[in-house]
Design goal:
127 residues; mainly beta; 6-stranded mixed beta sheet; 4-stranded antiparallel beta sheet; 10 strands; 45% strand; globular
Length: 127
């Protein structure tokens, strides 16, 4: 069975940190660029970060740059999102996504290029 499962969300105070994980089973993520997207209530789903298939290139939305770090471990078939200095406006459901388009330092593929196999994980930043 092909699955992509996000985990690691939760409730955290402003200024805190969380590490999200996205693990695939039944297939390999090796050939995909991977991304993290988020969707807050009443808002469009937006791209947060993406990483190249090899893991050597990454791209970030301006609103999370210098606070979030995306990484991947292809041996574990897993992608991560380290989130630091969290703010209430980071509250959303976070989704892992995959694409055959190429993520690079200078290019974040459009949302339409990604597929979203998982259910997402809720992140709530509140005191």
């Amino acid at each position: 069975q092909l699955q992509l499962v996000e985990s690691g969300g939760g409730l955290v105070q402003p200024g805190g940190s969380l590490r999200l994980s996205c693990a695939a089973s039944g297939y390999t993520l090796d050939y995909y660029s991977m991304g993290w997207f988020r969707q807050a209530p009443g808002k469009e789903r937006e791209g947060v970060a993406c990483v190249s298939a090899s893991g050597d290139k990454a791209n970030y939305a301006g609103i999370v740059k210098d606070r979030f770090t995306i990484s991947r471990d292809n041996a574990k078939n897993t992608v991560y999102l380290q989130m630091n200095s969290l703010k209430p406006e980071d509250t959303a459901i976070y989704y892992c996504a995959q694409t055959y388009s190429i993520c690079s330092d200078s290019y974040f593929p459009p949302r339409r290029d990604f597929t979203f196999p998982g259910q997402g994980t809720q992140v709530t930043v509140s005191s």
